[in-house]
């Protein structure tokens, strides 16, 4: 009996010592880790500062990033070399999302430590080969981002750089394709495949594609050029890849199941642009690109236009100078000058028709405000549960749900189990646990069974009998790991949240930012507008201010309107009366708009029918007298400046609510001449529209039946801005 007690006592002591050794080992490992981190921090001060290799200023040249081979987890080492295109370099061009500018990781560039954003670090880590060097062009590293002059020279070359590349590599983050050998035929499963296995594979594939198309990459303005100029594209997710055409096929399969997912439209639009590259020339005009991708995001306001210059087919080198030192109004003027002075003569008529709309759009894009808000990303289990509820409820799919939950670790990178697009910091930090505790430690990341069972399984290792006080270091180390484990397990059960950019809704424009009154007298009429005369003023009514503040004024106007309509033999009285009721209902919310924008110009500017080269003198002044109502020919009604006369004309512009009030000068020339009196607006006849906006561009071409009513007008920057102010309002994108 005594020997048995001694044996049991020794066994208990051995177990105690074993636990003691394990915790001491943990404490030592923690101390070594902290010491190493502190020691590395001290070494950073002695590392050489990185200097960019110089570029040859006499010819077109670039820098290439030579990515050295390395094993997974080893530090990233690269060489940066300067080359000219005469050297005929072979390289891949990287297209990726820059990402959060507060999170950085180190790479070694020409022997010096350089911090890059996490997205780029993970892209380089994933693209690196174990045995072969790779030549890449990466904008963040190959262009000195701190040198504005270099950016001004290199950014105009970007279209050429991406077209010249062997292939463009799109990197979408850390995603693993959840399709095994048996199901690699994504769109045509074999008949022998089990129904549940097929359903599970489709659910996992659908969720995988959902993650790819909802990456922030697709919202970037610069990718339009990078994708549009590429001859060959490979789409990477983690270390896996597929060709662009296969990616689009996979996306179309996803669209059939998720037709309401708006994120698919961006990729489809990009693919359509690539397909029309050599067939529909107009699609690649600067105006179409800027307008078509108006919701794309960029860091600098200048890039809302600069990002498309290299792709546009109606620009030539240095026609739009890329200069980040210029103010936003200066960029606006550069863009509008290009719009009118395009070397492609066949587009000049179109440019004059689009002018008022395009001017308003460019100003909006250059000053559009964005905000960053949280976006909830559903967990994999939530996604499949929702999908399965749509299936036949008579079938038991509980097994499929359990299997999909089990296999999620296979479908995602080890450190990206939450599919947020970047390694999860918490899960990455827990990667050291098995090595410290041995292979016997089991980390359960799923809720199973009762709450009591979950609690016991999660914290069984940390029961009080195991936490024997062995010293401050051991207890502190164990407590720290326990807290990390608890935090990880709690976080895994919550929907994941990341920050996403959204556009704010447009507000009224700041006129002072665009028009400098001190420069108006010296401006020359360099912009050409094409308009159409659609109405003649026949009767003037009360002011907007009177109608907004006096009920008696409104009653008197209705009586006056009725008398006028009966005397003038208007064909359809109901149309004009309806327009009047619509305008009266709008006055409360449009008074500020009318007082700001329905203004008069005191000028001696002349225009002539279809004669674009008339020199005009400008001496513009704006009157802030409250605008008045008018009734015009062709059953029109609207608001005009107070200084107009009966007999003046209303001139419309394509895709704009702004109208110009024109007055005939009485010239004896063959073509009538006019002076601009001010800006007006006509009440919209279509249901749901406040102001009339002509959308038929053919109405403004020389082939139009209204050719005799077309006028060409040369105006200054100030006049163009006054005419187009507050005519484009972009909606917000906040969901």
From TrEMBL:
Residue stretches of biased makeup (Basic and acidic residues): 391-414
This protein's name: Heterokaryon incompatibility domain-containing protein
InterPro entries hit by this protein: HET, HetReg/Transcr_Mod
Domain Heterokaryon incompatibility: 91-226
Region named Disordered: 391-417
Domain of life of the native organism: Eukaryota
């Amino acid at each position: 009996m005594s020997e048995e007690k001694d044996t049991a006592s020794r066994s208990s002591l051995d177990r105690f010592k074993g636990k003691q050794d394990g915790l001491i080992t943990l404490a030592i490992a923690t101390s070594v880790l902290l010491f190493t981190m502190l020691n590395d921090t001290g070494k950073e001060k002695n590392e050489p500062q990185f200097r960019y290799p110089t570029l040859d200023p006499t010819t077109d040249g670039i820098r290439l990033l030579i990515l050295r081979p390395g094993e997974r987890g080893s530090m990233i080492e690269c060489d940066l070399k300067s080359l000219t295109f005469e050297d005929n370099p072979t390289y891949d061009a990287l297209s990726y999302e820059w990402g959060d500018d507060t999170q950085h990781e180190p790479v070694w560039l020409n022997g010096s430590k350089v911090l890059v954003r996490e997205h780029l670090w993970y892209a380089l880590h994933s693209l690196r080969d174990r045995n072969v060097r790779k030549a890449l062009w990466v904008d963040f590293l190959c262009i000195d981002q701190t040198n504005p002059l270099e950016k001004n020279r290199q950014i105009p070359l970007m279209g050429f750089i991406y077209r010249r590349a062997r292939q463009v590599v799109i990197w979408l983050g850390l995603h693993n394709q959840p399709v095994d050998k048996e199901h690699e035929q994504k769109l045509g499963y074999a008949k022998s495949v089990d129904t549940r296995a097929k359903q599970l594979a489709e659910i996992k594939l659908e969720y995988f594609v959902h993650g790819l198309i909802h990456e922030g990459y697709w919202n970037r303005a610069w990718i339009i050029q990078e994708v549009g100029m590429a001859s060959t594209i490979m789409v990477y997710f983690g270390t896996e890849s597929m060709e662009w055409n296969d990616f689009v096929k996979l996306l179309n399969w996803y669209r059939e199941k998720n037709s309401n997912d708006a994120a698919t439209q961006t990729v489809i639009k990009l693919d359509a642009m690539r397909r029309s590259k050599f067939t529909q020339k107009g699609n690649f005009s600067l105006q179409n690109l800027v307008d078509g991708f108006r919701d794309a995001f960029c860091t600098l306001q200048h890039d809302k236009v600069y990002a498309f210059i290299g792709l546009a087919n109606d620009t030539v080198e240095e026609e739009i100078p890329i200069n980040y030192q210029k103010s936003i109004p200066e960029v606006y003027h550069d863009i509008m000058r290009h719009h009118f002075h395009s070397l492609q003569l066949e587009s000049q008529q179109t440019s004059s028709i689009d002018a008022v709309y395009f001017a308003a759009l460019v100003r909006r894009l250059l000053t559009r405000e964005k905000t960053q808000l949280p976006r909830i990303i559903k967990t994999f289990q939530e996604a499949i549960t929702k999908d399965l509820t749509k299936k036949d409820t008579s079938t038991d799919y509980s097994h499929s749900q359990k299997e999909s939950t089990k296999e999620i670790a296979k479908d995602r990178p080890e450190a990206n189990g939450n599919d947020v697009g970047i390694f999860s910091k918490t899960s990455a930090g827990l990667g050291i646990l098995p090595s410290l505790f041995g292979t016997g430690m089991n980390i359960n990341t799923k809720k199973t069974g009762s709450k009591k069972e979950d609690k016991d399984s999660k914290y069984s290792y940390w029961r009080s009998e195991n936490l024997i006080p062995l010293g401050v270091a051991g207890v502190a180390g164990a407590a720290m790991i326990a807290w990390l484990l608890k935090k990880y397990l709690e976080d895994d059960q919550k929907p994941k949240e990341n920050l996403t950019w959204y556009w704010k809704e447009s507000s009224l424009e700041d006129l002072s930012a665009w028009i400098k009154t001190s420069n108006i007298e010296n401006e020359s009429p360099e912009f050409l507008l094409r308009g159409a005369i659609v109405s003649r003023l026949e009767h003037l009514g009360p002011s907007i201010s009177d109608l907004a503040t006096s009920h008696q004024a409104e009653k008197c106007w209705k009586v006056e309107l009725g008398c006028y309509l009966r005397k003038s033999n208007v064909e359809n009285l109901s149309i004009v009366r309806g327009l009047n009721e619509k305008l009266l209902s709008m006055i409360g919310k449009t008074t500020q708009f009318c007082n700001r924008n329905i203004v008069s110009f005191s000028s001696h500017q002349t225009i002539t029918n279809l004669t674009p080269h008339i020199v005009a003198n400008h001496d513009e002044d704006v009157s802030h007298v409250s605008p008045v109502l008018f009734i015009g020919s062709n059953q029109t009604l609207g608001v005009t400046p107070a200084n107009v006369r009966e007999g003046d004309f209303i001139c419309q512009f394509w895709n704009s609510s702004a109208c110009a009030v024109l007055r005939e000068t009485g010239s004896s020339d063959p073509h009538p001449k006019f002076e601009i009196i001010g800006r007006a607006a006509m009440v919209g006849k279509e249901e749901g529209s406040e102001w009339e906006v002509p959308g038929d561009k053919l109405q403004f071409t020389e082939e139009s039946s209204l050719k005799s009513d077309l006028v060409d007008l040369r105006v200054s920057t100030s006049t163009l801005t006054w005419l187009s102010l507050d005519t484009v309002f972009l909606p917000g994108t906040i969901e």
